[in-house]
Amino acid sequence: MPDTTFDIEVIAAADLGVVPLLDGKPVFSKGDAADCAYIVKCGSVEIRGADCAIEVVGPGEIFGTAALIDDRTRSCSAVAVGATEVIPIPDSLFHSLLRDDPDFAMTIIRLVVRRLRATLAQLDGSGAVRPASMLSPERSRVSA
Known about the structure:
Elements: H1 8-13, E1 19-21, E2 26-28, E3 36-49, E4 52-57, E5 62-63, H2 66-70, E6 77-90, H3 91-100, H4 102-124, H5 137-140
Antiparallel strand pairs: 1-6, 2-6, 3-4, 3-5, 3-6
């Protein structure tokens, strides 16, 4: 699969601000309104659905995009794993990038499909469903 990470230095240069998070601190919870997506600057963020982890995202990876795409509330929760820093990408910038940057749009499409496939694999039993607390970044990270 083609690369699905972003250059942190380029994104950090946009001066969008950095949000520091302690281990276990939620970035957002299922049902929250969405006004931005996030890129992991350092550390890891666990994406949780129901009682299991869907994915652990690391530096350069974007998350929190689905609610911006369909203009609904958050469908999952996201929680910091260890000391973590994330960069928020405001809704308006996210939509501009989707419209104006085909590479960005394709990366987002790949990420959405990757996460959909992971969720479907868990639902049909072909994927290992593990409680969120047992999923480590090293075992779960999907990289291109």
